Every structure is written in C-alpha cells, then in structure tokens.
Amino acid sequence: MTTLLVIKQFISYGGIMDMDISDRIRLRFNLLDADGNGVLEAEDFAAVADRIILAAGADATDPKAAALRAAHDRYWQSLRSASPAERIDLPAYAAIVAADGWFPQYGQQYAQSLADICDRDGDGQISFTEFQPVMVAVGFAADKVQRLFSSFDQDGSGSIDRAEWVAGIAEFYDPTVTGSVTEVLVNA
Ligand SMILES: [Ca+2]
Ligand SMILES: [Ca+2]
User: Fold this and answer.
1) pLDDT, tens digit (0-9, with 9 covering 90-100), for 113-137
2) Which ligand gives the minimal distance to the CA of 45?
3) Is the dihedral of CA 157, 160, 164, 165 positive or negative?
4) From CA 57, how far away is CA 70, in angstroms rounded?
5) What is the 3-state secondary structure (H, E, C) of 106-164?
C-alpha cells in the first residue's frame, strides 16, 4: 500500500483502520441517512427523530419527544459545525464522530434521549414492546432487534434495564469500545 493511500484512508476514517469500527460507522451513517441519498442533511435528522417519536407513540407535547428532537438537532449541528459542507458524506461523518470528545459532548445526550423515549411508561425498564418499534424506527431489521434485545435480556425477564441500554448505545458509538452490542448490531 502506498503511503499516500494510507494517509488518504487515515483521513477518511479518522485514523481508525479497524474493520469493525469502519463497519459500525458505515452502519450508523446509513441509519441516519433517512432519504438514502448518500449524504446527511438536516432533513435526515428531523425525519429520523419524527419516525422514532411516532413509533414510540409519543405526542408532540411530550417532553421526551422534544428532548429527542433537540438531541438529533444537536447531533446534526455537531456535524455541520465541523464541516464546511452543507451535506455530510461518509468520510466526513467518520472523521467527526471518531474525534476525541465527540461522544461525551454530543452522543451521550442522543443515547439518553433515545433510551428515555424507549421507556414509554418511565419505569426504568425497557420492555420488548417498548424497544421493538423504536429500534425498527431507528432503522434496524426486526430480527436484529429481537437478537439485540435477547442479548441484553439474558435472564429472559422480558425487559432490560434502561441504564444498561444507554450504556449499550454508548458502546455502539464509542470508537474505543468493542462489545456484544456492536457485534449483534453490525453482524447479526
Ligand atoms: Ca440524506
Ligand atoms: Ca418501561
């Protein structure tokens, strides 16, 4: 491999060469690209947020819906402010989200708002009935959602701990962590 090619790849993927991490970044990019035109725009983030809110059965005045919209908007702004382009392509996305400090500053709020809206009855537990429609709205295939839920709900109680789910989303986003959540999401 030529040095130039190595440098190009390094820039394209924020310096992360690991295949699994590239796969997960690609997957997240595709999930966020709601209209599937290959670039991320403000409309994609709004569309994904609306889809999740609808799936969770939250109405427009629900604070959880407002929080989810705000987190998606903040996510978009973090991309937009880091790039001169108005549309964010995969290499730009990969470089921005893999940067040190991105997750605690932007991703954490996103993970929290997603878990909050999942926990519709607010009992601190996410049942499969709560989990399934939201994850399908995020863009995951139904069988993958089932497998992911089962991998969390190891005692088969039918619900997963809300805090545990926030940690799972964080794992999916943190470029330094590889674990069971990412494995199920990327490979299942
Ligand atoms: Ca798009
Ligand atoms: Ca619940």
Assistant:
1) 999 999 999 999 999 999 999 999 9
2) 1
3) positive
4) 18
5) HHHHHHHHHHHHHCCCCCCEEEHHHHHHHHHHHCCCHHHHHHHHHHHCCCCCCEEEHHH
Other beta carbons less than 10 A from residue 188's beta carbon: 14
Residue range 3-24, pLDDT digits in tens: 434 334 444 444 334 444 478 8
124 CA to middle of ligand 2, Å?
6
Whole-structure pTM value: 0.81
Give, in order, the Cα–Cα distances in Å from 15 to each of 9, 18, 35, 130: 8, 9, 28, 37
Ligand 1 ion local residues (Cβ < 5 A):
33, 35, 37, 44
Closest CA to 158 of 125, 135, 127, 132: 127
Structural domains in the chain plus CATH codes: 3-187 (1.10.238.10)
* Cα–ligand 1 centroid distance for 45 (angstroms): 9
The CA 37 to ligand 1 mean position distance, Å, reads 5
Q: Is the Cβ–Cβ distance between 32 and 40 less than 8 Å?
A: yes
Q: How many angstroms separate the alpha carbon of residue 70 from the centre of ligand 1?
A: 19
DSSP state of 178: -
